[in-house]
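FAQ: What does a multi-protein file look like?

Like this. Sequence, then tokens, then the next protein.
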Amino acid sequence: MTHRGRCNCGAIRFSIEGPLTEASACHCTQCRKQSGHVMAGADCPETALTIEGTLAWYEATSAARRGFCPACGCQLLWQMHGDPVISINLGALDAPTGLRLEKHIYVADKGDYYRIADGLPQEP
């Protein structure tokens, strides 16, 4: 299975060879500030990811970084430092993805302006 995606302007294109796993919606403050709301992503081994174009990285914390397009600003990736797994932002994938959210994470940190009512598991 191959997944493909790109940023909004097309300067960054990527493909993932193999499955994406752990599709989740993150409700942490950083993801909400970065995206304007909830961030959804799924994981793959970094070795399965091929990127075309020059990606920029933002060191979100001392523990993680976010990959984005320097031209249009679209956030595409998230990765813990030193982790061989990388998270792909689901909104950047070309349809059909064949994916479904599996869970919500960092819900203890979610915004006060919305409810989570889809019945999926929620991790504090």
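And here is the next protein:
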Amino acid sequence: MKLTLSVKLTDGETYKVVTNLFVIIAWERKFKRRSSDLANGIGMEDLAFMAYEASRTQDHPVPISFDEFIKQLEDLEVVETESAVPTQEASGSN
């Protein structure tokens, strides 16, 4: 699953990051949950952690600690989701 997250910081900076397999696995390790659990709902701490890890891997300057990153967040939202296994349209052969 890929999520595109819009991150707005208290200093007014806004940027988007996209999660990847590394970010999802880091989230699974930290929160001891499976990615399939995301279908049942996702909390703000989950989104913040994914934004933090994605920001770190995509060269956005972030504080050394996750808690310091949270303190700098003004707003955080999912702007797009993409399944890890995209569905394919059925071919119309008659």
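Q: Is there any per-entry metadata?
A: Some entries carry free-text notes. For the entry above: Helices lie at 21-31, 44-57, 66-72.
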